[in-house]
């Protein structure tokens, strides 16, 4: 599903509430609550309404203040609860504190490694162990990107973790990692289990040779 980052005045974007890429209807207001079609620059308060779910979002100047979940991708539905909790917390502060959001996403990756059977104590060791188990290089790079940038948020280095765009890419990478490590294997297992029993036995016998 295509994702379009929510931004002020876009005709359509991925809804904060329902996660659907949908048309948005906009209304403009002044501080006193009245609309002024002749002096748009005074209309610093705006609302967007999702055509799909009918829910609203509040914007002041160029920032979203309600629901205040930041401009991040909706979480992958297969994300483990412990990881999801941190993902949503990171999303809720991404506009106000990109640095804090990046640090939370690093912790989310550490918990994800634990969900995948690692110790969850040293994220670098955990990623190394996953690589030994055949983790594809691109997923390893994705894990390391979130690890390095998230760690940089706690111990500032050369990466600008105050940049919202940089942090928004981390949300995307976390979803990619969950998709590859959890969602995809689950779908393959589901399809594999539908094969006739004699076919599965034949495959098992072949792999024992």
Description:
By secondary structure, this protein is α+β, with helices and mostly antiparallel strands. The chain contains six helices and five strands. It has helices at 81-93, 98-115, 123-132, 137-154, 164-192, 197-208, and strands spanning 12-14, 21-29, 45-50, 56-60, 63-66. Helix 2 (98-115) crosses helix 3 (123-132) and helix 3 packs antiparallel against helix 4. The radius of gyration is 21 Å and the shape is flat.
Output the keywords:
5-stranded antiparallel beta sheet; 209 residues; single chain; alpha+beta
Q: If strands are numbered along the chain, what order do they take across the biggest sheet?
A: 1-2-3-4-5
Number of helices: 6
Largest sheet: 5 strands, antiparallel
Could you list the spans in which at least 5 consecutive residues all have pLDDT below 50? Answer: none
- Pattern of helices and strands: EEEEEHHHHHH
The general outline is flat
Number of E-state strands: 5
Tell me, rounded to a whole number, the average pLDDT: 82
C-alpha termini separation? 41 Å
Measured as a percent range, the helix fraction is 40-55%
Strand content: 5-15%
Structural class: alpha+beta
Question: What does the radius of gyration come to?
Answer: 21 Å
């Amino acid at each position: 599903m295509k994702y379009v980052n929510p931004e002020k005045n876009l005709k359509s974007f991925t809804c904060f509430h329902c996660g659907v890429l949908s048309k948005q209807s906009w209304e403009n207001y002044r501080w006193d609550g009245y609309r002024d079609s002749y002096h748009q620059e005074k209309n610093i308060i705006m609302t967007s309404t999702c055509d799909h779910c009918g829910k609203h979002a509040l914007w002041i100047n160029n920032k979203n203040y309600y629901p205040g979940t930041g401009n991040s991708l909706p979480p992958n539905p297969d994300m483990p609860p412990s990881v999801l909790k941190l993902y949503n917390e990171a999303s809720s502060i991404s506009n106000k504190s990109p640095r804090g959001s990046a640090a939370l996403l690093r912790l989310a990756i550490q918990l994800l490694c634990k969900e995948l059977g690692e110790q969850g104590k040293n994220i670098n060791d955990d990623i190394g162990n996953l690589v030994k188990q055949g983790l594809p290089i691109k997923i390893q790079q994705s894990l390391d990107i979130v690890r390095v940038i998230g760690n940089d948020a706690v111990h500032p280095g050369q990466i600008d973790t105050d940049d919202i765009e940089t942090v928004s890419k981390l949300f995307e990478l976390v979803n990619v990692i969950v998709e590859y490590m959890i969602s995809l294997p689950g779908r393959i297992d589901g399809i594999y289990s539908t094969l006739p029993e004699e076919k599965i036995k034949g495959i098992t016998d072949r792999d024992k040779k």
